[in-house]
Design brief:
homodimer; 342 residues; five-stranded mixed beta sheet
């Protein structure tokens, strides 16, 4: 079928036009669904029952240099990040990553030292979170492609899914937002900032940290009803929990990083916009049973983290920001890489 | 470090010059090794202990259209093959695949119908062998990249590794060789053949079948001491078992497919060469305890397959072919895709 004919049949959109989320919908519709799947399609990870109430937890996420690696990021950092972004999804579910496999697509002109740098980055990303790389494969490709898949096991009932938020729960996050978004704006659009500020913001992009300790502590507290990481931005994460739990949110404060406020003020940007609609950030966004709030907070603090309440779960399906008595909707806008900006 | 400086430091080879196998060596050296790893690096699959003598079995293998998909192969076939080549590795270890994750790198101009075709191919490849696709991700890439990772569980002691062959064991295969190699020569170099022959040979390339039933039956028979699939060619598979088991082989017959003999004769090619040094073939190559030969053969025949003895495991480290009393070495040549031929 030629392109014209395909377009007439309504099949003519290109994958570039469809975008990542609609492509995933197209794919899912064609996949038979495993019976008794412990985790719904569309959550941060996949899982398979292995008996005795336990599940194997699996996650695959691919990094492509052309669209996912901003200029200035080293191969070591890119490879490390390819692992860390998968670990972050495990963190959000409260699952310890055990082993990773890596499929590498390598351009022909990559040097041996580049391959070594990639290998060291992968190893660092895994070992930092207690996992090991146990296998994989390589092949030739036009882009540098780093496809990581991660494995761990968990008790099924200990998994923190996107779908359990209840009206009245407290919504909370593990840190301040906006640094990665500011860092990317800095790298891609060339804003002027002080050296110190630049270092903090760029480091958020080049050296992301997964909140694994926090996620494991939160899972252990049994106080969490829903959880997601914020790799597509805070706003998107809230809408995702809302959609999968059938609830809404009233957000009373958005924890914007101090450095982001400085960056935004200096460059005439909106700090709240950066914090809400950024992305490539790896904080956890969770809903907590109000009666167990102290348990959740204590558990996270015991591992050196913090849990910041930002609002409440509501009956309506909207995500609303209320500041000084004024309410405005937080949009379901997210982050589909930064390719459109390059 | 610039290219010249890197070359002086001995790091200047490009990945194209290094080739797939040496790249994997470079990577492995930089990875910390998980303690008590149940399966050595370099076997067909990876594994992680999950307690009670059981292991999680993992495999990742990536298909890139530019190097792995010959002209004439449909997207549906390519996607199906991306799953089947992973299933074949599970087959060689005697492990049932349960779930697959798929990371897709999609060129921007791919149409929605193409994405649907890929999805259907992936689903068919998984369902044909009882597995389900349970997750994955997509992103933009210059090539079509299909990275599949496969998961299953097994008893650790039931795994058929590459490393257990003993002197005196019978070496056997699950089918006849050379069809994929002949099919690829046909597709890439344009040899002339009859329509019927063409169909058989091209189908071997476009619609590979994993010997999963045979692998599971062989594992169940407990008669197998070592096993590998033949995706890099029969010669390479024998050398790999030899290397990892510390043995050699005396091969007394190479089962060359009838169609390959016809193809070779008609085109003045060496049928034995195609059968030994081909690749992209998914037969199993196993070593069997002589006393349990009948058990192994019966188990494979009970699932509709066949087990063809081709020789013996020997003390020497060489792989020797003996025909009509004449001995010649089978070289450790293999198959690193067909990119060099395009």
């Amino acid at each position: 079928m030629g392109k014209v004919k395909a377009q007439k049949a309504g099949l003519g959109e290109t994958s570039g036009e469809l975008g990542e989320r609609r492509i995933i919908e197209v794919l899912r519709k064609r996949f038979d669904v495993m019976p008794d799947l412990p985790v719904l399609f569309g959550d941060d990870v996949s899982a398979v029952s292995v008996g005795d109430g336990r599940v194997a937890v699996l996650k695959a996420d691919m990094l492509v240099d052309k669209t996912d690696v901003p200029r200035g990021m080293s191969l070591w950092q890119a490879a490390r990040k390819a692992v860390v972004m998968n670990v972050s999804d495990f963190a959000a579910k409260g699952v310890e990553p055990k082993a990773a496999l890596v499929s590498l697509g390598l351009p022909r002109n990559l040097l041996r030292k580049d391959v070594e740098e990639i290998a060291r980055g992968l190893n660092t990303g895994a070992r930092q979170y207690g996992a090991y790389i146990v296998g994989g494969d390589t092949g030739e490709a036009s882009d540098l492609v780093i496809a990581v898949s991660l494995f761990g096991t968990a008790e099924k009932k200990a998994l923190m899914l996107r779908s359990g938020a209840k009206v009245g729960d407290i919504v909370a996050v593990t840190g301040f937002f906006g640094k990665s978004a500011a860092g990317l704006r800095l790298l891609l659009d060339g804003f002027a900032v002080s050296k110190e500020l630049r270092e903090v913001l760029v480091s958020a992009v080049f050296m992301p940290q997964a909140r694994l300790k926090e996620g494991l502590a939160l899972s252990g507290s049994r106080a969490v009803t829903a959880s997601i990481d914020s790799s597509d931005g805070l706003a998107w994460s809230l809408h995702e929990i809302g959609r999968m739990s059938g609830v809404g949110f009233l957000v009373s404060s958005v924890p914007v990083a101090h450095e982001v406020k400085c960056f935004a003020e200096f460059n005439g940007l909106d700090a709240l916009e950066l914090a809400l609609y950024g992305g490539e950030e790896y904080e956890l966004v969770v809903t907590v049973k109000p009666k167990l709030w102290v348990d959740a907070e204590t558990a996270v603090e015991a591992v050196g983290g913090r849990l910041l309440p930002i609002g409440k779960v509501t009956r309506g399906k909207q995500v609303i920001l209320e500041v000084d008595g004024k309410k405005c909707p937080i949009e379901a806008r997210g982050w589909e890489h930064f390719k459109s900006k390059i």
